[in-house]
């Protein structure tokens, strides 16, 4: 039986295995057909199988290298995917945080909303005077935009602050004046009490003198 011919060009691993199996079958068949098995020389078959095994080993080595490169590429891709996932989580966290901040700002109820501010009609009337009150921005911000409405609210708050400061100053001045009057009244009250005491002492002294005079003989009783 003729042994399989070894190809001169690279072939797939399945073909190499098929050639090796065919070569092995040919070797066994030829050996069995020999009348003297000890005289059978397997070297030609081994010589033919050597390049096949070398090619198969080369394919195996190349496959291992490709598998190693594939694992390295897979590891790099996995690391990149993990990094991308982490960046995505950070972005989602930041987005949720910003959304919470926006909702908090939209739902925030500022204290100025509960302040008894001057109405817009009152402000316009005050601004139209020849001498507007101190602290009032003249002319008042006008317009229908959100920015103009914000500026108008700032002007109202600034005027309200100026009015509160003025009222506080007047309150302190009135308090100081009241304290001064109270102190003066206390002084006058003390003086009046002193005069009343002196008058009482004088009356008591006069009564004593009158009683002594009545006790003296020849002194007529007071009418």
From TrEMBL:
Name of protein: Fms-interacting protein-domain-containing protein
This protein's GO CC annotations: THO complex part of transcription export complex
One Pfam family linked to the record: FmiP_Thoc5
A single BP term in Gene Ontology: mRNA export from nucleus
Keyword Transmembrane helix: no
InterPro entries: THO_Thoc5
Molecular functions (GO terms): mRNA binding
Domain of life from the UniProt record: Eukaryota
Cell compartment(s), UniProt: Nucleus
Organism this protein belongs to: Rhodotorula diobovata
């Amino acid at each position: 039986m003729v042994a399989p011919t070894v190809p001169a060009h690279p072939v797939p691993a399945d073909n190499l295995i098929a050639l090796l199996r065919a070569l092995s079958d040919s070797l066994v068949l030829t050996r069995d057909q020999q009348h003297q098995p000890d005289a059978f020389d397997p070297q030609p078959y081994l010589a033919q199988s050597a390049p096949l095994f070398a090619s198969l080993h080369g394919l195996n080595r190349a496959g291992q290298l490709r598998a190693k490169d594939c694992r390295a590429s897979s590891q790099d891709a996995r690391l990149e995917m993990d990094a991308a996932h982490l960046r995505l989580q950070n972005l989602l966290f930041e987005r949720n945080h910003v959304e919470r901040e926006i909702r908090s700002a939209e739902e925030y109820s500022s204290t100025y909303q509960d302040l008894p501010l001057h109405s817009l009609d009152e402000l316009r009337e005050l601004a139209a005077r020849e001498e507007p009150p101190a602290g009032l921005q003249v002319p008042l911000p006008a317009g229908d935009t959100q920015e103009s409405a914000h500026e108008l609210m700032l002007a109202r708050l600034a005027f309200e602050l100026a009015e509160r400061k003025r009222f506080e100053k007047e309150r302190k001045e009135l308090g100081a004046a009241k304290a001064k009057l109270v102190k003066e009244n206390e002084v006058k009250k003390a003086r009046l009490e002193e005069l009343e005491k002196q008058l009482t002492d004088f009356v008591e002294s006069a009564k004593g003198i009158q009683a002594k005079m009545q006790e003296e003989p020849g002194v007529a009783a007071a009418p």
